[in-house]
Structures are given as C-alpha cells and as structure tokens.
Design brief:
Length: 295
C-alpha cells in the first residue's frame, strides 16, 4: 500500500512538472551570479570574480580549503580567494563553487533519507572526478566542462529523493526508489537544469545520457556530435565510480538496455584497462577531502 502511494505521488509530481505547476528549487545566489558572470564574459577579470566570491564567506572558505587539499596543492598554502584563483584558474574555481553550492541541495531534513543522500553525493563527486580524468587521458580539450557536466548529470535522482522525502517515509523497498529514479530522473533533472539556466550542452548531456550514438543520430539533435562523446565519458565514469565502492542503488535491477554498454563506451573512447586504472588514481583522497570540506 505504501509503495503504491509513493508511485502515485511521483506520477502526480511528474504531471505537475510537465504542466509547469511544480515549484523547482533554486541554486544559491552565488552560483547563479558566477554563472552569469562567466557566461556574459568568457574573459572576465580575476578582480571581478574575487569581488563576487567574497560576498559569500562560506563558499570562499571551502574553495580555499579545497585549493590547499592534496589534489590541488603542489606548493605553499593559499590564504585568499585571489591566490586560489591564480593557482587553479577560473574553470577549476567555477567548478569548485558549483560543487559546494550543489552540496546544499543534497542536505535532507529527514534523518532516514540522509544516509541515502550522502551516498548519492559521494557517487556524484566520484563520477565527476573520474569523468575529468578520462577527458584528460583521451586529450579532450575541456576536462573541466566534463567534470561540471558529470556533476549534474544525475541531479534528477537526488531531486526525486528530496521530493519523495517530503511526503513519505523511506520505503524499505529500495528497488522501488531505484525503479522510480530510472523511470523519471532524466525528465526531472533536465527540467531542473533548464530552470537553472545551464547551457544547452549541459542540459542535453543530462537529457540524453542514456542514449547510444545510434539513438542520438536518430533524434537528430543539434548537440549530438559533441554530446555523444560526453555521454560515453560520463557512462564509463559512473560505472567506474560504482566499481570503486561509491554505490547507492543496486544497479543489478536496472535493465541492461538502460545504459550504453560499458564495452561500447570504452571502445568508443579507446580506453583500455591500463588507461582506466589511471582514472581512479587519487579518487579516494579527492572524494574524502571534498566530503569533509563540504560537510
């Protein structure tokens, strides 16, 4: 009975989403303003970025701590956001700001859902990290963009969990949550990214990340050529992150046709076993440090 009520609630939420009648959460102001700043001026000055970020001392503190983490720090410690910006560059700072702002979206009022959401958050960070590593290995020109795209690719899953948590206690039937997520997360996620004014490429990655190159060709979407490679990168990154232990749902219940196959994805990217080993070097440290800083 409870499971049936949850399914009915999600269908009603889906109907409201399609009608434009579902209130969508907003990104923190600092993330919105940073997005506008870099979108309006790709060559924005460091001074303008520093002026913006210093308005939010919490985010500034987290970015500085991350800049001094083992993953980024190769020299003396930075003490200011200006020094962090010089060390990491605009794209990495932008990604860190988006990461720490997104963390707020994963916070739950319900303790029973908190453990599940923490696991989803850990998987999110791990997937984004591995996606960037894959991009670097295959010499993709924009590994930072791949990190960001993978960070938000499954935002619909956490959004659904958040919505369900507000009206139902956590079901013991985890396969129900998994099935609902599989069925609806793309639609909820792409609607959310559109409302947050993400660019078309990022929305397309979220919308079509379960499509193969053949399926994308049939759809004839404008972003097909670029997004195809990103989908395969994100697909491999997601599977490798789960192999490394960052699991929240039992994907054994997911139909095999739900994802482009791991074999097809690695072949498309020309990733062999040795290259894949390189993608997870430093993963554990990066995830644990990011979890600690963003806690």
């Amino acid at each position: 009975k409870d499971d049936a009520m949850i399914q009915d609630s999600v269908r009603l939420l889906r109907d409201r989403l399609r009608k434009g009648d579902l209130e969508l959460p907003t990104m923190p102001i600092i993330a919105q303003e940073f997005n506008k700043l870099v979108s309006s001026d790709p060559h924005v000055s460091n001074a303008k970025i520093v002026e913006l970020l210093e308005k939010d001392q919490s985010i500034t503190s987290q970015v500085i701590k991350s800049s001094n983490s083992a993953y980024y720090s190769r020299m003396k410690r930075v003490k200011t956001i200006s020094e962090a910006l010089i060390r990491l560059g605009v794209k990495d700072i932008y990604n860190l700001v988006q990461t720490f702002c997104l963390r707020k979206f994963f916070r739950m009022k319900s303790p029973e859902y908190e453990t599940l959401m923490e696991k989803i958050w850990g998987n999110t960070i791990a997937t984004a990290y591995i996606a960037r590593k894959i991009s670097e290995i295959i010499e993709d020109p924009e590994p930072e963009a791949m990190y960001l795209g993978s960070l938000f690719i499954n935002i619909g899953e956490s959004f659904l969990v958040k919505l369900i948590s507000e009206i139902h206690t956590l079901s013991n039937n985890r396969s129900l949550l998994e099935n609902l997520s599989d069925k609806y997360h793309v639609e909820f996620g792409s609607a959310l990214l559109s409302s947050w004014k993400f660019n078309q490429q990022q929305v397309a990655l979220c919308s079509y990340h379960h499509h193969s190159s053949e399926q994308l060709s049939e759809l004839a979407i404008p972003e097909a050529n670029t997004v195809t490679k990103q989908i395969y990168i994100a697909n491999v990154a997601s599977m490798l992150s789960e192999q490394e232990g960052y699991v929240y749902f039992n994907r054994k219940n997911t139909p095999k046709h739900f994802f482009p196959s791991f074999e097809n994805s690695t072949q498309f990217l020309q990733l062999d076993a040795e290259k894949m080993k390189l993608t997870v070097i430093g993963l554990s440290d990066f995830v644990s440090e990011t979890l600690k800083i963003s806690h």
